[in-house]
Amino acid sequence: MEESCKEWYHKNLLPQRMRSKKNEYLCQACQRTVPRHGGKSKSWKGCTFIMIYLFTGIVFLVTIFFLWAERGLIKNSTIVSFKEHGVKNLRNFLHMYLYARWPDKYIKTARFLLPQAAKKGPEKVSEGYHSKILTPNLAKKIVTINKSIPLKDLEKIIPYPVARKIVLTNPLDIVVLECPCRASAQKPCSPSMVCMIIGKPFTDFIIEHHPDKSKRLTQKEALVLLDEVHKQGSIHTAYFKEACLDRFYVICNCCKCCCLGLEAMVKHGVPIMSPSGYCAQIDKGLCIGCGLCLTKCPFNAISSQYEVIEDKCMGCGVCISTCPKGSISLERNESKGIPLDVEAI
After folding, report:
1. Residue where one domain finishes, among candidates 73, 90, 121
2. Using CB atoms within 10 A as the burial measure, which of 47, 183, 285, 328 is most buried?
3. What is the pLDDT of residues 188-233, one digit of tens each?
4. What is the CB neighbour count within 10 angstroms for residue 42?
């Protein structure tokens, strides 16, 4: 049996190395350079210095980037957000920072990349960024909640593997932000101030970094905004994002013409939205066939015969507000999942 490299080294080289002034020897058993006992090879020292230089350079570039992005001193909301994420989630913190610091550019880039990403894997696109559709009443329950909800994993309500947590405090902090989907659209609709950021540290970050595009809302103002956008045909969606601490952070009031989430869902088949838990029902005795519900439905869930296509209906309730005769209602549907009712959590 051949003598191992280690055995040969201890028998032949080790005694010589203790007397030799050379830094390394050529091992005859494996033809590799063996470092002097107790010493370190020159190549190891070189690699160490290279790693130190690289690390120092990266730290310098990151510091310059944040000083530029923060327009001077790093803001308190950035520090708080970093602490909430922690060093282990540095990648998610940087993702969140880019997303929240430049939302318009982020959405514009995502809109450009969406078609190719959807072709490669629509489920992968929605895995870490998705939403739960809310009926108007469920959305109002969130903005008027009068109790704190500690961190919870909504595994049964949010049907995705990650980003399904919720945490709410009383009183609830609400900030309205200019919608990045509408701002990045070719023909944006109005009003643009419709994205409702919910809870800290997200609200503080938006207010500090976008003082000219955001403002804080009272409960009453939030309810008025929800009513106004719903009458215009927008749907309420509670968005969850892995980069945003794996949890719910915004109520988006999505329009059919600008919303990137609706575009991903309807046009590219990305399952980025989960149903509200309800389904629309049309009373044929009251329906006059005006066609308003058919044109307003963002999911094309109403046929030309004014019948609800159950597989497509997401239970958003937009058709209800558009019907002049009140012939449409929402009914609980078990196949559409569990509603996001904060009072029942």
Report:
1. 73
2. 328
3. 888 999 999 999 999 999 999 999 999 999 999 999 999 999 989 9
4. 11
Domain count, the chain: 2
Q: Is residue 65 part of a domain?
A: yes
Buried b (16+ CB within 10 A) or exposed e, 288-299: eeeebbbebbbb
Domain boundary among 275, 304, 339: 275
Strands (DSSP E) contained in 19-83 are 24-26, 33-35
How many angstroms separate the Cα of 89 from the Cα of each of 81, 165, 245? 11, 16, 9
Residues contacting residue 173 through CB under 8 Å, at least 6 positions apart = 198, 199, 200, 203, 204, 216
pLDDT at 52: 72
For tokens 């308190």, name the residue: 76
For the residues 262-283, what does the mean pLDDT come to?
95
Which amino acid is present at 117?
Answer: A
Q: Is the pLDDT of residue 43 over 90?
A: no
